[in-house]
Amino acid sequence: MEQNQYSESILIYAPFSFAGIFTPNNLLKKGFSVQLLTHRGEVNAGFLPYFNGADTQLRVFEIDECCTDDIFKSEDLFNVQKILLLKGIQSKDWIFNTSFDEGSLLRIIACENKFLQYAEVNAIPVINSTAFYCSSVNFEEIIIHILSFFKEDTRRLMVNSLDLIIHLPDYFNADKLFIGDQHHIVIDQNSMTSVRELIRCTFEPMGLEIQFSGKGVHERGVIVDFDDDTLAQFGLHSSKIRLGNTVVKMNDFANSSIETYLNLQAKDHDDSVSKDYIVDYIKNKILNKSVI
Spelled out in words, what is the top-level CATH class assigned to the domain 3-287? Predict the structure, then answer.
């Protein structure tokens, strides 16, 4: 595509570079020029090869985590027609641990709010993805933590969010993403799952079936069936595996901003479409003895 054929410029804010690895190349192929902003230190040698073959209509900028107002004074940087906000998961602690570094996440939330304010003042359409990108390393850490329920003495798996939507790293296909007329981000539903479905599908190959009930902080996962033979196969014999036992429960959050941010629900998301992929992924990991 010739350079003068680029009709629109899109600014992408992706605080963690893995959240923006595929998207710029995909948008370049669709005729957009792209400016990618990521936090300082996130751009590394493993990140740049994904842009091999992309032309000069891509520029990558590293910005401070605090996202100072100075970056919004750059006319060259912000000469854009759309702003795309991509979320990413820094670690499994965001999902399971209330004592993670809240400061880092609060700064990301503040950055996103600044971009939203800038867009509103300048009448720039915003595409705000509610699903969280996850690196392959982080995804495996999440799976290992879920499976640790079977090995540790804790009675329940405690979570910060069950509604949080995760992009499955080994499945994600950037060619599924496009910008629609209503400025919506459209991604193949098979590429994402909620934490709720991820837990349910991770327990299933271990011989444990759970159902979720309740709303908000009162939602919990309860054992409705289990297979003794499958559990015995993995040497799992525990008094906490009983019909009716609550095995998944929500953490109490002191910070309402973080609670709201982590519990964003992707619109029109259907958990069922990703189930087969997740179960196969877990079975493969178990077979290779890499997670339990």
Answer: alpha beta
- d(C-alpha 255, C-alpha 257), whole Å: 6
Measured between alpha carbons, how far is 131 from 171 in angstroms, rounded to an integer? Answer: 14
* Burial bucket for residue 44 (CB in 10 Å: 0-12, 13-18, 19+): exposed
The rounded distance, in Å, linking the Cα atoms of 222 and 244 is 6
| pLDDT tens series, the chain, 292 aa | 344 455 688 888 888 756 656 677 667 777 778 888 887 766 554 555 455 444 557 777 777 766 766 777 776 666 788 888 888 888 888 899 887 777 788 888 888 888 898 889 889 888 887 788 887 788 888 988 998 888 777 889 999 989 888 877 654 444 455 444 434 445 555 577 889 999 998 898 888 999 999 988 899 999 999 998 888 887 776 778 899 999 999 988 766 777 778 776 655 556 555 677 777 777 777 666 655 6
Retrieve residue 181's tokens.
């007329």
C-alpha angle 270-273-275 in degrees, rounded to nearest 5: 115
Distance between CA atoms of 83 and 116, rounded to whole angstroms? 9
Q: Model-level pTM greater than 0.85?
A: no
- Answer for the pair 221, 236: CB distance below 8 angstroms, yes or no: no
Domain boundaries in the chain? 3-287
> How many angstroms from the chain centroid is the CA of residue 27?
20
